[in-house]
Amino acid sequence: MKAYVFPGQGAQFVGMGKDLYDNYPVAKEMFEKANEILGFRITDLMFEGTDDDLKQTKVTQPAIFLHSVILAKTLEDFNPDMVAGHSLGEFSALVANGALSFEDGLTLVYKRAMAMQKACEKEPSTMAAIIGLEDNVVVEVCSGIDEIVVPANYNCPGQLVISGSMKGIDVACDKLKEAGAKRALPLKVGGAFHSPLMEPARVELAEAINSTDFNTPVCPVYQNVDAKPYTDSAKIKENLIKQLTSPVKWTYIMQNMIADGMTSYTEVGPGNVLQGLLKKVDRKIPTQSA
Questions:
Q1: Residue 217 CA to chain centroid, in angstroms?
Q2: What separation in angstroms does the CA of 281 have from each of 221, 254, 257?
Q3: CB-CB neighbours of 180 under 10 Å
Q4: Is the Cα torsion angle 174, 134, 91, 282 positive or negative in sign?
């Protein structure tokens, strides 16, 4: 069974999507439609901007979404049996498998980005990557800290990203190193994504998602909140809303896809991070970039 997976924030690079714009009329049309929907020329920032331009959450999220969705649209053999997306990438996956229209997907992604950026500005917060510890150890250490600090991204065995207040992350990094972590690396991100600090953004996005029409997808989407496959549009909406304040269970998504018969794994979008994560779970399954 063919799995197509879509990356999240952090995969962006200057020049992303330019080859699609130049070589595929359908891609050019979709990029120009996106400029119209967003009210600014995001293509200028994607193709010729700076790294700092692309690091702005309000630019990063729609830029990665556009690159991923438009790339999928240009693939002649795009016929997935299962899809998933890491955090933001879940929106790309939902558009690619027919659960959301391109226009509605982009509108929701931009609202999500703006709401998350606003939540980050309310209180300084951050994230850190913890390398070389079992997941249960990281969870136990974080639960014993009297600050906001929680698991945010279960990326692969031995790699878990935590999220929380500035003080919470500092304390957690020290304690996790004491517990045997090989590395505890603070990340250069705008805030504590997938943590309780995103609650204002969750409330704002919930209203937008609930007022948007979702269709029955052509294949199951394995969702971040519990790593399980869904085709019911009401449940997909519910999980998508929960995603902002819940951890991304990517390790378990990969394990469940394998258990359900995945035979190939294609990453659709900028970068190849998700291919690297699968290799930490099962090196035998062939991976490729779209």
A1: 19
A2: 19, 7, 11
A3: 10
A4: positive
At 147-168, the pLDDT tens digits run 999 999 999 999 999 999 999 9
- Token duo for residue 23: 């070589």
User: CA-CA distance, 9 to 85, in Å (whole number)?
Assistant: 11
Q: What pTM did the predictor assign?
A: 0.96
* Number of helices (H), then strands (E), in the chain: 13, 10
Q: Would you give the DSSP letter of residue 17?
A: T
- Catalytic position from the list 67, 68, 86, 87: 87
Q: What is the pLDDT of residue 245?
A: 97
230: which 2 tokens? 């869904």
Q: How far apart are CA 135 and CA 120, in angstroms?
A: 26
Q: Which one from 86, 92, 163, 194 is the annotated catalytic residue?
A: 194
**Bridge-based pairing state of the strands 287-289 and 82-85:** unpaired
C-alpha 62/C-alpha 45 separation (Å) is 11
Question: How confident is the model at residue 136, as a pLDDT?
Answer: 96
Q: What mean pLDDT is reported for the chain?
A: 96
Residue 77 is given by DSSP the state: T
* Amino acid residing at 189: V
Tell the residue number behind the tokens 């929106």, with chain if given.
91
Q: Can you say how many angstroms the Cα of residue 224 is from the centroid of all Cα atoms in its chain?
A: 9
State the Cα–Cα distance between residues 210 and 237, nearest whole angstrom.
Answer: 7
What percent of the chain has pLDDT above 90?
A: 91
The residue type of 83 is V
87 is catalytic: yes
Q: Is 163 a catalytic residue?
A: no
pLDDT band at 59 (very low <50, low <70, confident <90, very high): very high
